[in-house]
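Quick one: structure for this chain?
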Amino acid sequence: MDTIYLDNAATTPMHDEVLQAMLPYLKQNFGNPSTTYSIGRTAKAAIESARKTLAQLINAHPSEIIFTAGGTEANNLAIKSAVAHLGIERIITSVIEHSCVKNTVQYLHDFNGIELIKLPVDELGIINLEALETLLQNSSKKTLVTLMHANNEIGTLLDIKKVSELCQHYQAVFHSDTVQTFGHYQLDVQTVPIDFLSGAAHKFHGPKGVGFLYRKKINKIEPQIHGGGQERGMRSGTENVSGIVGLAKAAEIAYAHLEKEMQQIKALKQYTIEQLNEKISNISFNGPTDDRALYTVLNIALPNNDKTAMIIFALDMEGICVSGGSACNSGAIMGSPVIQALGKQNDTVPIRISFSKNTTKKEIDVFVEKLAAIL
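Got it. Here's what it folds into:
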């Protein structure tokens, strides 16, 4: 039985071209990029080429790109460094942030005494930007606003341009977790000025264990990981050369085909919604199902009963991979803080399906058929 993989928000299969780009740096070009002999210089040149590629894709300067071990490290580096070195006294975030942001800001509140404000969301997961403006307007404290571009469970998109404008106007520092959107939307840090932006390769068909942080060059911060001073002094530790090469290659491929694949996946998502509504009664959706949501994510609300209590495992037995929410919360479905923040009762069970360019209509048909049979 072939596996039907519908959990691309958790991770994506690596593109063949990405693997081929990485292989030379796992074999013959294995040198440490901090060394001065030829194979070390070759590795260093590959890192700098990747840095330039990433910078060009978001209209940044190469010196503003810092390679990390993934999105979690990038978000930690941005938030903790902003507090430590930019004079941040107050953090404004939301109740539906990814755990790597939510737990980091809570830590800074508990142990550093930073004022912490969590913006609520409406029934679709949308933040009230008027409330954000009021908070920025009514305090003179140096503020960090950290809001994710798209929620990883329900897909709700942030109006990142509007938030950027508000932060600029009120001189707040703006960090956005763009792990779910980099590679899926055009991001231009000149058109949408932003102080910190993070990404992770494995969300757009690159390797796991590598990501990046964009840091606007005027933000003078210090590293959180100390050592040999790699990554221009911003992140010590021998670089993951093959991973960095794979990250850049995956990003290059993603943006070369972005518009075509966006339309393809949007159409498939709409088809899925139609099929679910047609074949299964008493079904609804968490978050928006239109362009206010990330086009790769669909969160389905099933009636809460004995058939749905272990629905993820039941689907797994049929060879279908879906999620109950964030991939960072594995195991049987428990109450999702994101779903709870929408103000919903516990009378539904959420399952998240997430699409990639590899997802087919035939796979969706099988998924809907199997789900209907289980229910």
